[in-house]
Amino acid sequence: MTAQTDTTGSVTTVYKVSGMSCGHCEGAVSGELSQLSGVSSVTAVASTGEVTVVSAAPLDDEAVRAAVDEAGYELAGRA
């Protein structure tokens, strides 16, 4: 159950994050994930709980989990 796509020079992964309910939540999660090495883009959507991350290479799931946790939310897995 993975929503990960490889395109030339980048990997797009969609994660499910529980607990997001507003724009502030989206910003908090996006801000933490943007700090991970290799991440070029993060789009969080509170209404669906989905966070789309574009990175140079596949990200370590534990690093993603720690970043989401630091923002105050819970990584529910990949969409």
From TrEMBL:
Name of protein: Heavy-metal-associated domain-containing protein
Domain HMA: 11-76
Coiled-coil region(s): none
Organism: Streptomyces olindensis
UniProt-listed SUPFAM superfamilies: HMA, heavy metal-associated domain
Annotated CDD domains: HMA (cd00371)
UniProtKB keywords: Metal-binding
Record-linked PROSITE patterns: HMA_1, HMA_2
Keyword Metal-binding: yes
